[in-house]
Please model this.
Amino acid sequence: MSQVEPLQVEGTFPGADGLELYYRSWHPPVPPQAVLGIVHGLGSHSGWFDSIGEALLPRGYGVYGFDLRGHGRSPGQRGHIRHWAEFRADFDHFWQLMHRQHPHLPCFVLGHSLGAIIVLDDALRTPQRLSGIIAMAPALTPVGVPPLRLAIGRLLSQVYPRFTLNSGISKSAGSHDPAIVAAYLNDPLRHTKGTARLATEFLQTVRWIQTHLQRLQTPILILHGSDDGVALPASSRWLFEQISFMDKEYREYPGGYHDLHNDLEAPLVAADIANWLDRHVRGERPICKLSDRRLLISHH
Model:
């Protein structure tokens, strides 16, 4: 008997204002035990998370990812939003897509960098619908964008909101792997753009999250590389300490760069995500331990 291969699906769904947003999904050959949605970071797209999908499919998880407006295969000016509410509503429609297809399964969400801010914002505003969130390299404290560019963005947001700036982030800041860095450079769907309005909407949302973290009542796994120069690891340490909800874990990977899912420790990162999901699907409480391969702090 031939082995049943996982199913990959591509399509679109309508965003908040009818904008057709691209998504892809990976389905295991057996009925899934839970679903994980993925929200990428600035300038990236859903196609760069294969390592996570490949790790989760054999363990019975369905995986969904979508391209934010202005990113990847989704339409819209590159790196631009008019209001943060567009991201918020787009994510809501993405969640509805997963929920319609798997109405009785636990739904977890992973957000990377900018995507982590989108996920945290949603978890604070609609705390009951997610079974857990994974925040990878959340940018909750000053990021690796030069301060001058942020200042220009603030000034221009009101008079020229679509004015586009290059983020100024090093092209090699995501991964130690030269092959990954070269692939990033040759990927026509990636970009390093952000508009003045996106910058101010992002900073305003970060401030709101910082002042409302005590509301968080969703299990959370926080992942960060110790050498991340884009979203500083201090932001994740601060995030962990500010959350009062006890089902929280923090893993810091020594030497890791910004894109942990595509860095040298990607297999370990994917395994840690899978193990955390397994524990929460089974309803187990988090275990507090310290590993010599990574810093892990957790409360239970």
About this structure: The chain has a mean pLDDT of 87. Helices lie at 50-56, 84-101, 114-125, 147-157, 178-185, 196-212, 233-242, 266-281.
